[in-house]
Design a protein that fits this description.
With 136 residues, this protein is mostly helical. Helix content is 76%, strand content 0%.
Length: 136
Amino acid sequence: MAGRPKIFDEQIALERASALFWENGYEATSTEDLIRAMGLQRGSFYHSFGSKRALYASAINFCESNSFNELKNLLQKSKSPIQVIKSVFLSLADCSLNEHKKGCFAGNTLAELSNVDDELVENAKKHLKTLEEIFF
């Protein structure tokens, strides 16, 4: 028996959840905040994502796949990969104060959840290791 079709764009919902988690952190983001930001009904939220924790893991993976794929493409297309890496770091220096305050999503996860959730922390470490490998 097939379930009801989704009536929302999962990618947009993940983008909104990722932005909220990145801005506020895991603990300071309530399920109600997420449901409101994602524009979902409670049932759709739980049916599609399972829990706040599962959504957080998906949000980190979503951010990684988008940003890391973009970075890999830039590096592969460039005749000067070192310039691409340099521009990545220079763009961090030039971003707005609000962007600076957000920090690194994976780094924030390590800082906030290091004594709370080993699995999410290991996932964040994996993301940072992947970024290191891309730069290498």
